[in-house]
Design a protein that fits this description.
Structural class: mainly alpha
InterPro entries: Globin/Proto
GO molecular function, one term: oxygen binding
Helix content: 40-55%
Number of strands: 4
Strand order of the largest sheet: 1-2
């Protein structure tokens, strides 16, 4: 059984578009640039609110789609991540943008597209095939990708996989201008990804903020590209090596990304801290 099938967020994604609750309301002036919003988690599942919809509107779906398209361009070029991706021809970026749009309460485009999506069989590395129709089955297929090293076929996502994914995803967010346009959205979005990444590797959330910071330094990106787009400091390293790359306050923080107030988050980080 695919363990992702029991995740509360993935269970919620089985709803049809008509069953998905989208929070709407008067959003144009509902938030201020200084406002900070906690993640709303009910039964282990992220819930959209009028505030998340307003945050989404700060950047808009076109810019979100640019981010997800850029992310997949980076992922295709990354030798580690590309092993999980069966085909470069599928509309990965569009689907990812729809998923984000729906999760933040903008529309039901992901559920609507998923209902129309053709159910094609996908060849797996062990000679079997499967039908990919949602996030759970897609990731199950990725574990058994024909591109993976034989000794890694069937291995679930590990911490190094999640960290590479987050670094490139947040780099894409920077490169299309979302961080510059709305730091407020970007800060929420890092916590949003911190919530969702935990289903793939339980220790991954604590590395989300490091992944975001990594892309802020152009020298980091140049070194990565110059090294053949391989993160030698991450891939196949023991957890102690990963942990040593974090500030102590992040390595020991068991609450993030679920703080109730920004004040609580600041106090946990120490005086003068930001995220």
């Amino acid at each position: 059984m695919n363990p992702l099938s029991s995740d509360p967020d993935i269970i919620a994604e089985r709803l049809t578009a008509t069953e998905v609750e989208i929070q709407r309301g008067s959003l144009a002036t509902s938030i201020d640039k200084t406002d900070w919003f906690p993640l709303l988690i009910e039964g282990g599942s992220h819930r959209s609110t009028t505030e998340t919809r307003a945050l989404f509107d700060l950047v808009g779906k076109d810019m979100i789609a640019k981010m997800t398209t850029k992310f997949y361009q980076l992922a295709f070029a990354d030798p580690h991540l590309d092993k999980f991706i069966r085909s470069h021809n599928d509309p990965h970026g569009e689907r990812f943008a729809n998923w984000i749009s729906e999760k933040l309460g903008n529309d039901t485009s992901w559920s609507e597209e998923r209902a129309r999506r053709p159910r094609h069989e996908v060849e797996l590395a062990d000679g079997r095939s499967t039908v990919v129709h949602d996030r759970s089955s897609a990731h199950g297929a990725a574990w058994h990708s024909v591109k993976r090293e034989p000794e890694k076929v069937g291995r679930h996502f590990k911490l190094d996989d999640a960290r590479v994914w987050m670094r490139l995803h947040f780099l894409a967010m920077r490169e299309v201008g979302i961080v510059e346009k709305s730091p407020q959205f970007a800060e929420y979005y890092v916590r949003f990804i911190g919530h969702f990444v935990k289903v793939y590797e339980g220790r991954a959330p604590m590395f989300a903020r490091e992944a975001f910071r990594w892309g802020a330094d152009e020298e980091n990106v140049k070194a990565y590209v110059g090294n053949g787009r391989i993160f030698n400091e991450i891939i196949d390293k023991p957890f102690t090596s990963h942990l040593a790359m974090l500030p102590t306050e992040e390595a020991e923080d068991v609450i993030w990304p679920y703080y109730d107030t920004h004040k609580d988050l600041i106090e946990a980080r120490g005086a003068g801290a930001g995220w």
